[in-house]
Specification:
Elements lengths: L10 H19 L1 H6 L4 H31 L6 H12 L9 H10 L18 H21 L10 H4 L3 H4 L2 H21 L23 H24 L8 H17 L9 H10 L5 H34 L5
Helix pairs in contact: 3-4, 3-10, 3-13, 4-5, 4-13, 5-6, 6-9, 6-10, 6-11, 10-11, 10-13, 11-12, 12-13
């Protein structure tokens, strides 16, 4: 038998430590330069605008999830879908990095885990349907982000390789890929008690079968990512770095770093992974200290948007509790 090597504490912990170590080293190496950077009034306005654009992107992300539910053949209640998405999004920062998905999963199955969330669908979904609806959203977001990388040019062949996952969405490859991911997640989430009923019961046909290429949810995710980049671009403008690199290059670097923060099993919410990949990708063409300032400011801007979105959603949910929801 072949011995399998396992890192103590798991891969996730080591990726988190490596990302944190890289960022700490960058902060220590450029601490003096960072302290010398100052934001004027216009720079502060750019950051405030970044919070607003990032907040709008979260709303569009919730709508994109509704488009996905519609593509899967369900009838989403749009306001409830967006409220569920916004109120659960803040949970991605909790240890484990899955609790935002867990809340959506339970809500789609008709149980909001003791929370006063409105029903996102008229009828609850089976365990398999709920897993697919939750699993596909980040998958399509990652593919959409990589599709933006070629806008930065050839990049040593990266501009050609990055959009290749678009081919994986063709039904010929999409079905076996998603079935494998679905089985893995159903087993993992069933062991955590996140699925109701018979988690392993197979449906007569996959929920996505016969629906063709997922153009509607993919385009909706592209709209979300462009708005997300808009928030990042505001941080770039705040530190007057737009001249250092064309906007296509900024978009490509952001898309690659954002995808890494989404899919790499590092810290919750992509903390550390996004910043590390952004620095590694762009320090050859952008001064490292200002780039580090942009990365940190974007993290603060996006976190502020997450907080505002969750607070707004909970306020609306409180209003719903005192009225009749249709």
């Amino acid at each position: 038998m072949t011995a399998r090597f396992a890192l103590p504490g798991g891969v996730r912990r080591w990726i988190t430590l490596a990302s944190a170590g890289f960022l700490v080293a960058a902060l220590l190496g450029h601490g003096r330069q960072l302290l010398e950077l100052q934001l004027d009034g216009q720079g502060c306005l750019w950051l405030l605008l970044g919070v607003g654009v990032s907040l709008l992107s979260l709303v569009v992300n919730g709508l994109a999830w509704g488009v996905l539910l519609r593509w899967l053949g369900h009838r989403p209640r749009w306001a409830a879908v967006v409220l569920l998405f916004l109120s659960s999004n803040l949970r991605k920062y909790l240890p484990g990095g899955i609790w935002h998905l867990a809340q959506r999963l339970r809500s789609l199955q008709g149980a909001a885990a003791g929370t006063p969330l409105p029903k996102p669908l008229p009828e609850p979904l089976s365990g398999r349907e709920a897993v697919v609806a939750v699993l596909l959203e980040p998958l399509l977001a990652a593919v959409a982000a990589l599709a933006l990388v070629p806008l930065g040019g050839w990049q040593g062949g990266l501009g050609l390789l990055a959009p290749m996952p678009l081919l994986a969405l063709l039904p010929r490859w999409f079905t076996p890929l998603l079935e494998r991911l679905e089985r893995q997640r159903m087993q993992q989430w069933s062991e955590r008690g996140l699925l109701q009923g018979e988690a392993t019961a197979a449906a007569a046909a996959p929920p996505w079968q016969g629906r063709g290429y997922p153009w509607p949810p993919l385009l909706a995710q592209l709209a979300f990512l462009l708005l997300r980049f808009g928030g990042f671009a505001c941080c770039v403008q705040a530190f007057d770095l737009a001249y250092s690199l064309g906007w296509g290059g900024w978009l490509a670097g952001f898309a690659l770093a954002w995808t890494a923060g989404l899919v790499v099993p590092g810290a919750p919410g992509g903390l550390g992974v996004f910043e590390t990949v952004l620095l590694l990708r762009l320090t050859a063409v952008v001064p490292e200290a200002p780039l580090l300032a942009v990365a940190i400011s974007y993290r603060l801007v996006s976190a502020a948007a997450d907080l505002l979105a969750a607070a707004t959603a909970r306020r609306d949910l409180a209003a719903i509790r005192n009225s009749t929801y249709c």
